[in-house]
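Propose amino acids for all 176 sites.
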């Protein structure tokens, strides 16, 4: 039987272990860590940031949310989630990276939605001070859910009058 022995310098092993540890930590930080989820570039740390985010799309909103609370992104995909996430993907967001996570939901009333006949709301989904998704919802009977981008024009929702006023006085009386 052959037995080999080697003298190991504990100082050299400690230095090598420290270098490996620093390299691993550097890679984790560079690649985003194990709890990292995709984030948007829109950092919003407070209400002013959320309002500014919506204003960047041209929306004028009530400055405080009409509703806020936590929601959980579904851990398992389903038809409703898939349809909603398609809307998110069209806005360069993707909720699949947040599956099973709890996020904050803020809802603001929009005051300048073109042709609105009922309240319109903007919903923001926030995770770690980042906008990760959301929508604009027209609550009218023929309303829809759309992305944050302000529509250029919307279909006429009300029917025009059958007869137009012929004199300024008749238009004043019609408005009274």
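Proposal:
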């Amino acid at each position: 039987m052959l037995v080999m022995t080697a003298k190991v310098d504990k100082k050299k092993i400690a230095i090598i272990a420290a270098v490996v540890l620093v390299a691993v930590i550097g890679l984790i930080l560079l690649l985003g860590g194990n709890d990292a989820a995709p984030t948007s570039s829109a950092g919003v740390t407070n209400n002013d940031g959320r309002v500014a985010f919506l204003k960047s799309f041209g929306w004028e909103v009530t400055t405080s949310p009409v509703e806020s609370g936590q929601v959980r992104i579904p851990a398992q995909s389903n038809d409703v989630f898939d349809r909603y996430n398609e809307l998110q993907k069209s806005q360069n967001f993707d909720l699949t990276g947040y599956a099973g996570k709890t996020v904050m939901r803020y809802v603001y009333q929009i005051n300048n939605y073109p042709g609105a006949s009922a309240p319109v709301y903007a919903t923001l989904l926030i995770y770690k001070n980042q906008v990760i998704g959301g929508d604009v919802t027209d609550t009218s009977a023929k309303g829809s859910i759309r992305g944050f981008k302000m529509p250029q024009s919307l279909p006429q929702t009300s029917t025009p009058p059958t007869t137009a006023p012929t004199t300024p006085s008749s238009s004043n009386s019609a408005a009274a």
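Residues 10-31 form the longest helix (22 residues). The beta strands are 67-72, 102-110, 120-127, 130-138, 145-146.
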